[in-house]
Q: What sequence folds into this?
């Protein structure tokens, strides 16, 4: 795989499914996996996250983005269930804007560190200038 992959985690399957569809239109070659909803409802599940990471893993790296606090806890649990790997990073970024910045950067063939940096820079995005 020649691109850093993304894993999108949300308490809602519909949110990450729609976001994946949007991002795939922006950069169709960047591998994206999703984990959303728990057992058909609202929530996250560490095993689903682990499976999503494994499905898009490559030596190029994987950036994990999430929506709310307990999604982070489950993402961290998923990483603990995997072999320790520096090529998997959880980004401290807003889900939508961070994922958008990440997929653009990944599509340029950037490194894992550059994709994480791009996603995390979305925290500084000013959407309305007054």
A:
């Amino acid at each position: 795989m020649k691109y850093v992959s993304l894993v999108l985690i949300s308490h809602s399957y519909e949110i990450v499914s729609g976001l994946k569809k949007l991002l795939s239109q922006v950069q169709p070659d960047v591998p994206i996996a999703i984990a959303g909803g728990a057992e058909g409802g609202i929530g996250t599940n560490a095993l689903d996250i682990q499976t999503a990471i494994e499905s898009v893993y490559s030596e190029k790296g994987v950036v994990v983005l999430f929506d709310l606090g307990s999604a982070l806890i489950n993402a961290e649990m998923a990483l603990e269930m995997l072999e320790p790997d520096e090529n998997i990073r959880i980004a401290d970024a807003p889900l939508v804007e961070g994922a958008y910045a990440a997929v653009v950067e990944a599509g340029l063939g950037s490194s894992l560190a550059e994709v994480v940096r791009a996603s995390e820079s979305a925290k500084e995005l000013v959407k309305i200038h007054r």
In short: The helical segments are 13-26, 46-56, 69-81, 95-107, 112-121. The mean pLDDT is 95. DSSP finds five helices and four strands in the chain.
